[in-house]
Design goal:
By secondary structure, the protein is an all-alpha fold. The chain has nine helices and two strands; from the N terminus they run H-H-H-H-H-H-E-E-H-H-H.
């Protein structure tokens, strides 16, 4: 791994852990909101139909929805998470069928709605996990990070067959399997630390695998947008890592599912 990329990753990890463990909820929610707004702007730049005015509207709509989910009952968040999960399943179809893109997805209003829904659902999921138990939030982050890192390492060493070459030539089936295994280990370790019974531990490991699989869909979906825009990264905010969206694309997809099921699973 290039030195710049490694140093940036370490700095981000330290900042993220400090925020999760020591940041008051309003600060945590605020920082996550800024990240979501930055990612929304970058995502809008990847959409040919979203000019500056449209992107400004996306930021306003997203900010309003974030504020609403913060002050309104948690049930609103559950609705958002469920809608987002349906959207990510549809995104999987988009990834598989690429380069064929339905014309409806090229309309500015549809693209704006996708950005707002996906980011609002992820933000509210992470904030809700923090409200319940910071360790839940940490496990959600860890399983995505570990899955991504293990997938990279295993894919580089053992990858032969491409996972989705028309979208992301670098991803391999070996990397996918390695990432899923890494996420399962995170789930099993968390279950052991929380002293869950055997059934709960097994269920948490299964949920971790599902979240990791969904995180790959999030990553590939962003790759579809980047390929259509003809760019390698969503931005240049983070040295060696690209933009904010490049760093959270996997988490955007995985967080709603984890927030929907994990609290009841572990008794949170």
């Amino acid at each position: 791994m290039p030195r710049t990329r490694l140093l940036t990753a370490l700095a981000l990890l330290v900042l993220a852990l400090a925020l999760v463990w020591y940041g008051d909820l309003p600060w945590l929610a605020g920082v996550l909101a800024l990240i979501a707004l930055r990612a929304a702007w970058e995502w809008g730049q990847l959409c040919p139909g979203l000019d500056g005015a449209w992107r400004g509207g996306v930021l306003l709509a997203l900010g309003a929805l974030l504020a609403a989910t913060y002050v309104l009952p948690p049930a609103l968040g559950s609705v958002l998470w469920s809608l987002a999960l349906v959207g990510w399943l549809l995104a999987l179809v988009l990834v598989v069928r690429y380069p064929a893109v339905p014309s409806v997805l090229q309309r500015p209003l549809v693209q704006a709605a996708i950005i707002v829904l996906a980011l609002a659902a992820a933000w509210s999921a992470l904030v809700r996990l923090a409200q319940i138990d910071r360790s839940l939030l940490l496990v959600c982050l860890a399983l995505v990070w570990v899955a991504d890192s293990v997938a990279y390492l295993v894919g580089r060493r053992y990858g032969r067959r491409r996972l989705c070459p028309q979208v992301s030539p670098g991803k391999t089936l070996a990397g996918l399997y390695g990432g899923l295994a890494g996420a399962v280990l995170v789930g099993l370790l968390a279950g052991a630390i929380w002293r869950l019974d055997a059934v709960q531990v097994l269920a948490l490991g299964t949920l971790a695998a599902l979240c990791a699989a969904l995180s790959v869909v999030g990553d590939l979906t962003e790759s579809v947008f980047k390929r259509r825009a003809g760019v390698k990264d969503s931005g240049q905010l983070l040295p060696g890592h690209g933009g904010a969206l490049d760093r959270i694309d996997a988490l955007i997809a995985a967080a709603p599912l984890f927030a929907l099921l994990a609290p009841s699973l572990v008794g949170g």
